[in-house]
Design brief:
The chain is an alpha+beta fold and 389 residues long. Strands 4, 5, 6, 7, 8 and 9 form a six-stranded mixed β-sheet that branches. It has a five-stranded mixed β-sheet with strand order 11-12-10-14-13. The chain starts with 18 loop residues before the first helix and ends with a strand. The radius of gyration is 25 Å and the shape is flat. It is built from eleven helices and 14 strands. It folds into three domains: 113 residues, no CATH class; 95 residues; 150 residues, Rossmann fold (3-Layer(aba) Sandwich), CATH 3.40.50.
Length: 389
Amino acid sequence: MYAACILVVITTQFNGGTPMFRALTASLAFLISSVMAGYAFAGNPFEISGVRMDAYGSNVTVAREQAIRAGTLDATYQLMDRLTLPSDRLALDPPLVITEDVAEQLVAGIQIARERRSSSRYLGELSVSFDAQAVRSFLRLHGLPFVESQALPVLVVVLWQNDDGKTVIGTENPFARVMSDPAFQNHLVPMKLATQGMDVEESAGSERVWKLANMDPALLNELAMQTNVDEIIVTSAKKTGPNSVSIRARRAKIGADGVESLIAMGRFSGVAPFDTRPREVLSYALRDAAKKIALVLETEWKHTAIVREDLRQSVRLTALYDNLSQWQRLRDALGGVALVEEARLDALSYDGALLTLRYIGSEEQLARRLAQKGVELRNEDIGLVARIH
């Protein structure tokens, strides 16, 4: 949270009784009393879904209880995998060990789907929502660095090779249906299914498929502008066996002048377990492969964004603005970045404010978080400056 701060006003710069000053003062009072809201997630990174449960017991009630406890523990370890790096976990001494009782203390709620049961066996699929603050406290207690925020979403274009060997687009093919699951918004790098311009006539669709398959720069740039993203992943999926699929993924990074780079991510295989219901085999295999793509994106993001508690900095920051509305946006941006521990106001004028900022992480990480909120942070002649893009 923001600590209470002392307001030092430079009275020679403005008339303290003007409406503008009173409005700015009220705005600053709000800053002083604001609570850190955290980055506005595209999804909920503290939710793990699709955890398979399968347990036996003396009766189905016992089996269900065991399945939920084991599934919750599995989900907790999946959350640790999502938020932290393997190298940091391996460096812990003693190693991090999570019991079923500890896992339950971190849980905010659960949902169960696809239940099946017999007299002594219980199967299902578990989704677990974790208490974000409890998880953060747990990780800090164990000295385990973790990611504080999601990256900006990437747009995922889905191409599907049907049973006739024809590559199609659209939102009704099997892979598109899988990628439309909101759970893909919960990853550290949210994956947003491309739908705009995907449902087209067959003749036009063939041309569009060809352009997408060949990473046509003009079309990729058009999609990026339409959906306000700076990264697009074009995927081509096909069946490779009764219960397996393969997805080829290529990545385009878009800048102000169009496509800046094209990256081949490789092929990702997906397999459905042998006991999967026949009608769910294809979607499970596709989901398995798509999660592997998400893992690559998440690992890259963690290396960039992970926050280490031992890196704390205090800097003087000048916030420049043209009007009250811009100041409010700057204030909200600072109040919405979890890296910022304290923002102390030292001086104020009609077009700028001087603050002492205390934050965790590097200046680059802070700049990246603020950029996600439309604020540019850069070093200038007068020092570190924040202004609206």
